[in-house]
């Protein structure tokens, strides 16, 4: 009998990626809710290198890092493929998923926490990243074509999570005038199963990010004083 | 007729990864040597997002990012698989390759450029990263088992390149006493085909890194003055 457990926290988007993927595949799993302020020994044993959620436990074997977990899920449960089948399209999907994690998320986070004269420059960098993704989604319903795929799952942070960061950072990034295709994708994405059945409340994400933003801003303020 | 071209520079280890992979697969390719001080329009068109080498051109279709290219090569030319066949082992190989790029390389680079009171802490962080990889290679000839695989290729920077950074950073990291298994792996790796036939000269790598190190140190010095 197969056993699938997910160590995760509801407000984190890397964790949401794994939940969406498991649900697309129709894999049943047990959700082990992690308290990040008091990490469990199971998490520390399962991901001793990064000590971070999400961790997927498949028959007690741990897999960490959300994009690595997505590939594992796609290779283990073949139904409803997440990645395209063509090697070149697979490479493009992986390229953009890395871009989202390594550039886009950092740029939007940087714009959120930036204050004073750094704000305009940081917002500009975030807009530059998003403009590249706007070009990628133009003319398509989903990054994966007619269905949600690997890159939609990876890009899921651009829906609710970026919207919360815009609110907390008092800035407008992903509006319909500036990025019509990304904006429409984001609306579609949030209304598609299984995403719509498996998304944290806006209030809980606001609370989740607020702590980190205040912490970073207080560090920046104390280093200047 | 298939056409494979590689836009690259000999001293860069992400570029070396792609060359090793193509040679393991027995794929013939044309090497397009890039001058990073005066980037070609072909590079800028092929990788407009990052404007970086390596880029693989397969029948004129560009693929960028060395780890993405390795997966593409493995999926396109099936002979001599680079990744393990088992999904769990594949996930582990991908996890550690990301660790090398996102933690280990940055830690060793940080230790190289650090000066003054920051040096000891930075060297400590680099040693912590390497200690995790020492545990991974213990008892094995290669990360891939009896043959060089995806993770050996990803880890290839720990051979010649890290050794040059140790010299330029005036520090000892990967010696035989501290990390006997990694040290032995590194020696084996450099003597294995196709690596041994396709490695830049030490002098050229010293020159390649020296420029960057001096630049970073001069920035750090000017921000303190």
From TrEMBL, chains A, B:
Q: What is its EC number?
A: 2.5.1.18
Residues forming the GST C-terminal domain are 86-208
- Name the reaction it catalyses: RX + glutathione = an S-substituted glutathione + a halide anion + H(+)
What Pfam families does the annotation carry? GST_C, GST_N
Task: Identify a single GO molecular function assigned to this protein.
Answer: glutathione transferase activity
Q: Which GO terms describe its cellular component?
A: cytoplasm
Taxonomic lineage per UniProt? Eukaryota, Viridiplantae, Streptophyta, Embryophyta, Tracheophyta
Which top EC class is given?
transferase
The transmembrane residues are none
Could you say which protein family the record assigns here?
Answer: Belongs to the GST superfamily.
Please report the organism this UniProt entry assigns to the protein: Glycine soja (Wild soybean)
Q: Which UniProt keywords apply?
A: Transferase
Q: What is this protein called?
A: glutathione transferase
Q: Has keyword Transferase?
A: yes
- Transferase as UniProt keyword: yes
Signal peptide limits: none
According to the entry, every stretch annotated as the GST N-terminal domain falls at 2-81
| GO BP annotation list | glutathione metabolic process
Superkingdom, taxonomy of origin:
Eukaryota
């Amino acid at each position: 009998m197969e056993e699938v457990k997910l160590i995760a926290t509801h407000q984190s988007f890397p964790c949401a990626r794994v939940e969406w993927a498991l649900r697309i595949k129709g894999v049943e799993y047990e959700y082990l809710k992690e308290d990040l302020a008091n990490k469990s020994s199971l998490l520390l044993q399962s991901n001793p290198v990064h000590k971070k959620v999400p961790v997927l436990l498949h028959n007690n074997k741990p897999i960490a890092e959300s994009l690595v977990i997505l590939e594992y899920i796609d290779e283990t449960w073949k139904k409803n493929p997440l990645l395209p089948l063509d090697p070149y399209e697979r490479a493009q999907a992986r390229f953009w998923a890395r871009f989202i994690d390594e550039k886009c998320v950092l740029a939007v986070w940087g714009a959120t926490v930036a204050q004073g004269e750094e704000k305009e420059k940081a917002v500009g960098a975030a807009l530059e990243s998003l403009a590249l993704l706007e070009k990628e989604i133009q003319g398509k319903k989903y990054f994966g074509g007619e269905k949600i795929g690997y890159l939609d799952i990876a890009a899921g942070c651009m829906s609710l999570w970026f919207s919360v960061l815009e609110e907390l950072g008092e800035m407008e990034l992903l509006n319909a005038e500036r990025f019509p295709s990304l904006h429409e994708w984001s609306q579609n994405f949030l209304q598609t199963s299984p995403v719509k059945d498996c998304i944290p409340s806006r209030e809980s994400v606001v609370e989740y990010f607020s702590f980190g933003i205040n912490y970073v801003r207080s560090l920046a303020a104390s280093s200047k004083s």
